[in-house]
Amino acid sequence: MVYPWTDIVNSKYFTDPLELLGEKSFGSPDDIPDDEIGTPMQEFYRDKTIFLTGGTGFMGKTVVEKLLRSCPHLKHIYLLVRPKKGKDIQERLDAIFEDRLFWRLRAEVPDFRSKVSAVAGDCSLPGLGLSETDRATLVKQVNIVFHGAATVRFDEHIKMAVKINVCGVQAMLQLAREMKDLKAFVHVSTAFTHCPRERIDEEFYPVPLKYENLIQLISETGDEELSEMTPKLLHEWPNTYTFTKALAEPIFYLLCSTVVSTYREPVRGWIDNVYGPIGMLVGIATGVLHTHLINLNTVTDMVPVDLVVNSMISIAWSIGESGKVEKAINKIENNTLV
């Protein structure tokens, strides 16, 4: 049974996510003494440098905002950004921070921009398209990696989907292995990676095709022929998105269902797109959409983006505190993508 959100919030078993995370915002960085002790999670992020891919997207922007607002002693954030639509990486970074999402941050932490830098790169390119200088900087300085970049188009050509969603993860892991003081690596995936299964548990499932074989296939086959082969390659998977995401497991990963607007922070109800269910709601609200076919027996899996972001930040903290990242990276090297 699916309960209304109001019933959940009013339940005696409900704990506000912000209380769980020790949420704390500040009037000005100057008001925070360096020796002030924060929550265990805030202390974990003290003096840490973060590398984030997908930072220009819906979820990535929310991660950046949350970290800068809630972790006052965070050292720096590097965002992987590619030039797009005639804009260079600095212009794209400037455009990101004009979003309403960052209004609260600008008021509470006025000099937050000094802690964010853009790094030119592209997850569809070998080695993430990083320059030697930028790669050396990341290897030397980064402590925590959040890999959120992906192509989420259901109709993406399989060659591009593999380059970004499989080879991109492989390149990120290779970079992570070189990092001198890596504490945590978190890969953002989807709860629908193994959608052909009726039930998904917290475990890694086999896929019908080895990623090495698929990478070799797309490198040796033309686009038109690959398009014809795609339905057979996908087996039971409905699209290239979920299929390539499944190939990129296992790793430290966070599985999200359909991510929608913010529940509470930094502002209620913020979203920057009309994809998926949001597009449907906009269509209904504007009177454009009058009917929609639904299955009354299924659960609508949606989650507010700020709760997902809080989970991402918590997972990195948990991994870092456990001290298991080196062992896990070595295991990944021996069994999967590296």
Automatic annotation (TrEMBL):
Keyword Lipid metabolism: yes
Physiological role: Catalyzes the reduction of fatty acyl-CoA to fatty alcohols.
Biological process according to GO: long-chain fatty-acyl-CoA metabolic process
Reactions that this protein is recorded to catalyse: a long-chain fatty acyl-CoA + 2 NADPH + 2 H(+) = a long-chain primary fatty alcohol + 2 NADP(+) + CoA
Organism (species): Diaphorina citri (Asian citrus psyllid)
Protein name listed in UniProt: Fatty acyl-CoA reductase
Domain Thioester reductase (TE) per the UniProt entry, residue ranges: 52-312
Top enzyme category: oxidoreductase
Subcellular location per the Swiss-Prot or TrEMBL entry: Membrane
Keywords: Lipid biosynthesis, Lipid metabolism, Membrane, NADP, Oxidoreductase, Transmembrane, Transmembrane helix
Annotated GO CC locations: membrane; peroxisome
Gene name of the encoded protein: LOC103519187
Enzyme Commission no: 1.2.1.84
SUPFAM superfamilies noted in UniProt: NAD(P)-binding Rossmann-fold domains
Chain ranges passing through the membrane: none
Family: Belongs to the fatty acyl-CoA reductase family.
GO MF term list: alcohol-forming long-chain fatty acyl-CoA reductase activity; alcohol-forming very long-chain fatty acyl-CoA reductase activity
Membrane topology: Multi-pass membrane protein
